[in-house]
Write a structure and sequence with these properties.
By secondary structure, the chain is mainly beta. The chain contains 1 helix and 10 strands; from the N terminus they run αββββββββββ. The chain has 2 domains: 29 residues, no CATH class; 148 residues, Sandwich (Immunoglobulin-like), CATH 2.60.40.200. Helices cover 8% and strands 31% of the residues. The strands form 2 sheets. Strands 1, 2, 3, 5, 7, 8, 9 and 10 form an 8-stranded antiparallel sheet that branches. A hairpin with a 2-residue loop joins strand 2 and strand 3. The longest helix has 15 residues. The protein is globular and about 45 Å long. Bound molecules: copper (II) ion (CU) and zinc ion. The site of zinc ion has 6 residues, from loops.
């Protein structure tokens, strides 16, 4: 009896709130997604995971084999990475129809992310929580009909110039795929 009441209470809470803490076997795990980045020659040059949390989507990205320096990374608006130019990934994910750049007063795009720094050994790592996107259905859903992808550029994002921060060619791309 107590148990049944608990289940009912939990169901009510679950249906009326955005997200409960994950308790294995009791609540469903938060949605997650993954990405495998490939360069223009089809080589795997990185990967990442995206995890829904209460503040947005946590993006964890690792890249390898890049030229040292600062590179732009964005979420683009089409789940398609056709080499070598990756134009198929479309413009930045921008459901709010804003301008580009984390430091642009008229921005940012929902898909804008901080730059990633590649060290002398060619490795780079980025961790960032993006509150402007979601792995749950809604206006900022990354896994909608067109899906989305992550693109790494050859140079740094200046965080201000519309529409893409003067970040140069697209050098790696990966489609964002639901993982759980
Ligand atoms: Cu981009
Ligand atoms: Zn942008």
């Amino acid at each position: 009896m107590r148990h049944a009441a608990w289940i009912v209470a939990l169901t009510v809470v679950f249906m009326t709130s955005c997200r409960l803490p994950y308790v294995p076997g009791v609540t469903s795990p938060p949605p997650s997604a993954g990405v495998t980045l490939k360069d223009a020659d089809g080589r795997v040059v990185g990967g990442g995971v995206l995890l829904q949390d209460s503040d947005g989507v946590r993006v964890l990205l690792d890249i390898k084999g890049f030229k040292p320096g600062v590179k732009a990374v964005h979420i683009h608006s089409v789940a398609r990475c056709d080499p070598p130019a990756f134009e198929s990934a479309g413009p930045h994910f921008n459901p709010g129809n804003t301008q580009h750049g984390l430091e642009n007063p008229k921005g940012p795009h929902a898909g804008d992310l901080p730059n990633i720094e590649v060290d002398a050994t060619g490795l780079g790592h980025l961790e960032f929580t993006n509150s402007r996107v979601s792995l749950e259905s809604g206006p900022t859903y990354l896994l909608g009909p067109n899906g989305s992808s992550i693109v790494v550029h050859e140079s740094a994002d200046d965080m201000r110039t519309d529409p893409a921060g003067n970040s140069g060619a697209r050098v790696a791309c990966g489609v964002i795929v639901r993982a759980g």
